[in-house]
Structure formats: structure tokens, C-alpha cells
Amino acid sequence: MTEDQFGIREGEVVLELPKAFDAGVYYIGRIHTPWASRDECPKNARESAAVCTVEVDARYALALQNVQTCSHLLLLYWMDKARRDLAVQAPRHYSEPRGTFALRSPVRPNPIAASVVRLIRVEGARLSVVGLDCLDGTPLIDIKPYFASTDAVPDATVGWHGDAQR
Amino acid sequence: MTEDQFGIREGEVVLELPKAFDAGVYYIGRIHTPWASRDECPKNARESAAVCTVEVDARYALALQNVQTCSHLLLLYWMDKARRDLAVQAPRHYSEPRGTFALRSPVRPNPIAASVVRLIRVEGARLSVVGLDCLDGTPLIDIKPYFASTDAVPDATVGWHGDAQR
Known about the structure:
Two copies of one chain form a homodimer. By secondary structure, chain A is mainly β.
């Protein structure tokens, strides 16, 4: 798909972001992955069995108590390389433009990703996990225990999405 | 459990937050629920079948294209009433203190909640959903399609958590 001089592809729609932020985020650590550029990243996390490392800043180390008892975690991280102003977008591997909130693209008003990972081990303030597809060095903003009772909906469907496409 | 003059319960540990934020968040809408105070909120979302309303700001309306084809969504919202500086905490309904990152408590360095909701309908920039447990007026920060293929892990476990407790 062709891009114009601003990197906007056909069918994409830019929105005007507010003049000021409403709240502030602390980076609480960094994620280390094998992928140094966007092109190297797996198209989605299921395609990779790579063990990635989450380094939590020392000031938050105590907050990791009991995390080692979780089989899976929900990680929130900040996709700091992504633009934030597209309402409709056409990711490279999809055929047509769709609304930002119907996509998991990094491009969104708040470039926060939510990924379910399998926890391999905890050593001090470092977690080894499987299930990420982000760039090396991505800032971490939260770690949550994954509760199957509320977080797992195996029969959920995304109508616009043909499984063959993903 | 008793609280000291700063609202800290026995066994809780305060951490020193950084002096400055690393990134900024836009509120993209508001969530309307039946619950005006923390005490009224369901202890967790499974306990409620209440239909809640998500009002997305007009500037982001186009970004909702194709969302109506999703059976479930992952909503991220900002728990703006919560303190952010506890490393170890003792939520009222649990027996002992645990690390913040092993809990889904609103109290965390970045007070972002992630909730899976069932989408009932979309009317303009307003979504009706089931599965929330937050305060009325809570700021919304993201809407994502829920993909069972990557987001659903039905056999995930949280070791510290006895199901009877939740």
C-alpha cells in the first residue's frame, strides 16, 4: 500500500489529538526481546516461542512479591515509537483500513499494549516470559496477575477478522 | 484491618515514586456505571450483570469503525481515585498483604485497569457493555478487540489465590 509524504496510507484518517495530556505514566522497567526493528518483530505473539526478559526497576522490586505463583501475567507496555493520531488505519498485513479501536496496532491515542504472557521464572526483579512480540527496550508500565475466571473468554469472536488473515 | 493516619494498613509498604512522569495519557471518554462509591462497586466484575455505558469523545468516533463486529472487548481505564505508591498492599477482602503486581487492585504505579467486557451494542460513539466493576465517571483510555487466540488462557492459575477467597 502506498504512503504519502506523512506516512499516511490510502484510506487512513488522521484525528486531532487534544492539546494537553490528562494524566502521567511512569515507566516501571524495560522489556528485552530479540527484535531490534519493527520488521523483525513477529506479526503476532503466537508466532514466537522466544523467551523475553522483563527488567523491573529496583524501586518496584517489592511489588513483585507473590508474582512467582502466577502461571500467566498480563503485561502493559508503552509503544513509544508509535504515532498516536490515526482514527482509521491500514496495517501493512491487512487488506483494508479499519477503526483504531478494532485493531491491536501500536498506533492509538494511548499507545499501550496488553499482552498475555506465560511466566517462566522470576529472579530478583527480572522475569522471563513467553508471548511477547514487541521491540527490544520497550518501556513496561504494569504487571497484573492473569485470572482465567475474568480474563479468559475462549469463545470470543472478532467478526471483521478472518482467521486466515491473522 | 486497622489503618494508620496515612491510610496504610498493617503489612503495607510504601515506595518512593519517581519525580517526573515518562509519558502522557489522554482520556478518550468516560465510563458510566451504577456505582458512585468504592463501597458500592462489585468486588469483581463476575458478580455483576449490570449493563454499563462507555461514552467515547467525539474526536475519536471514527476509530470505532468495525468495533461492532467484536463479541468482546478489552477496555483500559484510568483509576484516577487510587493512590499509586504502594509496593505491598492488603486489600480489604484478602487476609494478608501481597505485592502490587500480584494483585488487580486499583492501587499501582500506573493506575490502569484492564477489563474484558461483552459488547451489547454500539450506538454512535456510545457502547453498551457487561463486565465492569468500576466507579461511575471513570476515565477511559483505550478500547481493543479481544482475540481469543492470544488473550484467552482458560487454564491459567494464580497460585496464591484460593478460589474461595475471590
